[in-house]
Amino acid sequence: MKTDAQLAQDVTDELEWEPALQAGPIRVQARAGVVTLSGELPNPAERWIAERAARRVAGVQQLALALTVRPPASGPRADSDIAHDARNVLAWLVGPPVPTVQVAVLRGCITLGGQVAWPWQKPVILDAMRLLPGVQGLTDAMRVLPGPPLSAPPPPDSRPIEAALRRRIASGPLRVLVEGSGVTLCGQIRTPAERALAHHAAWGTPGVRAVHDRLQLIG
């Protein structure tokens, strides 16, 4: 069983690992399996992402949220303001250059078009956009580039994936094999939920373009 300090550190590491979250302002405390997150975040999207990331960590029995969101300006938001925020989020999540992803906003509904370089970027972008203040709807028309991007990141490193798996899955150690931009997951899991957590850890790592599943469900 993890100590309070180990659990708090695992949650902190998971928050820092989450690509869609700036974990700096978030404080983590743990006591007897109860984890408390506190701090101020710029929008509801980050609050939701932080909650989801903390719940992924093995050993978290209950989660107490003391996270506050900076209050938005009163009244409905203009489409131009939502579009401005969306482009800022894209610049932060994807990094320059961002022109490959287009943003259109009509009556509070965001449509995302264009291309992203890596499969993991799509769910990260959608998660962050969905809860931007004033957003009434979201349409995903983004495609993943079929080939490597012009400035391809280095091949994925198995160590952060293995660390994420240790934080999340209590069944036992899983092995991660990397070949090029592909990742193979090996080992034994007890539930389909653990399989989903393992896949999320692999896809959430920059540089991964394919995930191969060799996990055995031992139930």
From TrEMBL:
Pfam families: BON. InterPro entries: BON_dom, Lipoprotein_DolP. Residues 3-71, 78-146, 153-219 form the BON domain. One of its GO terms (molecular function) is transaminase activity. Coiled coil: none annotated. It comes from the Bacteria. Keywords: Aminotransferase, Transferase. The keyword Calcium does not apply. This is Ornithine aminotransferase.
